[in-house]
C-alpha cells in the first residue's frame, strides 16, 4: 500500500499511516498507536509485531511480579507452619517427659513397678512424636514442591507468551 503525506495550510492533517504533517513541513512525526487498529495490514505489519512484543513483555513482567509475590507468601506460610509444628513437637516432648515421670511415680506406688504400662505409655508418646515430625517433614516437602511447580508453570507460561 502506498504511504501518502497530506499537508494542510491550517493545523495539519492525518493520513492512513498515522503520520502528521504540519503546514511548515518540518515537523512530521509518527505516532506509536500501532496497537489500536490494523486497517492497512501490509504497511503496519512491523508495527503490529512491535506492539505484540511490547505487550508480551508487559504480560511477562506482570506474571513475574505475581510469581514473586506468590513465592514470598508461600515461603512465609511455610516458615509459620514449620515454626508452629516445631513448637508442637517441643510441647509434645515436654508432655511426654512429664507424663512418663508422673506415670512412673504413680505406677511405683500403685502397681509396684508395673513396667508393661510404662513401656506402653512411652511407646505411644514416642509414636506421637515421630508422627508429628513426619507430618512436619511431609508438609515442608509438599510446600516446597508446590512452590517449585508454580515457578516452573509461570516460567513456561512466560516463555510461551514471549514466543507466541
The tally of strands reads 3
Q: What is the subunit organization of this protein?
A: single chain
| Largest sheet report | 3 strands, antiparallel
What is the number of independent domains? Answer: 2
Low-confidence spans = 14-22, 26-44
- Dominant shape: rod-shaped
What is the ordering of alpha helices and beta strands? EEEHH
User: What's the tally of helices?
Assistant: 2
Straight-line N-to-C gap:
27 Å
Strand order of the largest sheet: 1-2-3
Overall radius of gyration: 35 Å
Can you give the helix content as a percent range?
A: over 70%
Structural class: mainly alpha
Strand content: under 5%
Task: Supply the key terms.
three-stranded antiparallel beta sheet, 3 strands, 71% helix, mainly alpha, 2 domains, 164 residues
Describe the structure.
With 164 residues, this protein is mainly alpha-helical. The protein has two domains: 1-32, no CATH class; 48-163. It contains two helices and three strands. β1 and β2 (19-21) form a beta hairpin. The radius of gyration is 35 Å and the shape is rod-shaped. The chain starts with 12 loop residues before the first strand and ends with a helix. The relative contact order is 0.09. Mean pLDDT is 67; it is low at 14-22 and 26-44.
Summarize this entry quickly.
Residues 1-16 have a biased composition (Polar residues). This protein is 71% helix and 4% strand. It is mainly alpha-helical and 164 residues long.
